[in-house]
Amino acid sequence: MRPSLVRRIATAAAGARYEDFSPEVVAKLKLCLLDFLACAFEARDLPWSRRAAVMAAREPGAATVLATGVGATVEAAAFANAVAGHGLVREDMHAGSVSHLGVVVLPALLALSERDTVHGCDFIAAAVVGYEAGARFGRALITPDFARFFRPTGFTGPIAAACAGSRLVSCDPDLCANAIALAANTASGLNQWPHEGSDDMFFHPGFAARNAVTAVALAELGVAASDGALDGPAGLLTAYLGGKPAPEIALFDGAPELLAVYNKPVPACNFAQTPCQSALAAVGRQPPAPDRIRAIRVAASYAAVRYPGCDFSGPFRTRLQAKMSIQFGVAAALRYGKVAESNYAALNDPEVMRLIGLVTLAADDEFTAAFPARQGARVEIETVDGALLRQTLADVVPATEAQIRARFRDAAGDALSPSRAAKIEGFVEELERAPSVGALPRLMASAALDRRTANSQARN
Description:
Mean pLDDT: 94
Order of helices and strands: HHHEEHEHHHHHHHHEHEHHHHEHEEHHH
Strand content: 5-15%
Helix content: 40-55%
Low-confidence stretches: none
Structural class: alpha+beta
Distance between the termini: 72 Å
């Protein structure tokens, strides 16, 4: 009898080694880790990050809540750090699974690395495995119609992080299989939040990371979970595929999925990125005054138009609603001549709202056929004097390595100190040589405590 899908994934995951991966894959993982840390630092004072940190502090332990100095249990630290990493809506993105895998995999692995001595090579291998498993599983499960109701990261995240975490702590396929199967039981997350602009979204990666770490711990204790948790008669894929047979999922069947992950250039929904970039490219260096614009036509993939919250013209109650809306993103880009966090500060800017009223959004067959390999968009801007400004981008333009490093240095330098940021960046750069990756989050904890002490002394 053929092994179950859980067993096949577990065998591939447990057998993965650092030496299996090219320098390009290793470099990509390091960049994603830096970007995750940058997002967590920059979001540390946002309401959802603060609340997650308060929750974590109620469970004292040896794991680190990033940039706070708070010690928490492994599970609680994974939860809080995942929430903070997701807090800006600028986390890394895997379009094929419509998932943010880094904000689940990386905080889970960092927390586990403080529990046990973990060599950098094993951390890298485990992280690549996590991205791979979550991406492959997501490609099999997530469709635009699925995402109308369920949050993709809430379903792919537990599988990804449990696969990564079990590979980190053991190369035993049985332990990995049990962790994956247990994590499959925790897959969850509804997509009602875009309709209301509520905070649910920020906690989905936190739940996924915490549940994955718990699944790994239970598997270590010898819990025997269902082999058919994914493709059995009542398994996760069977339940959500509506009677369709579970597709084949094979890890590393082709280029590693990590190479298909891109780092967002701006803090907004994945599906709003290319339309905003197209709008700015259309107007070039001499944009028309906003009051000279008569019509704005935007075309994107069916997946982009149908994702909850993306086709929304207001009214906007929260910044999150604005970050999800393609109409708001394009209008604000034309209003301010850029796409930045500041674009989303004034939700009722009269000029932005007027431009939103001029936007029509439609799904384009060509962009739909190219998705998810490419995320294309087209923007046409008609002026009152009859000029037509038009730009098509075949794919999103990701943040460059230089941009990612610059924003890490800014965020970490502000949260900790420039010297501590340099130490952290150096640690990540030499990650494969680290005898214990647990020293990385502890660098952040000690710096935060140093800052607290200095502030306290200054007040006294």
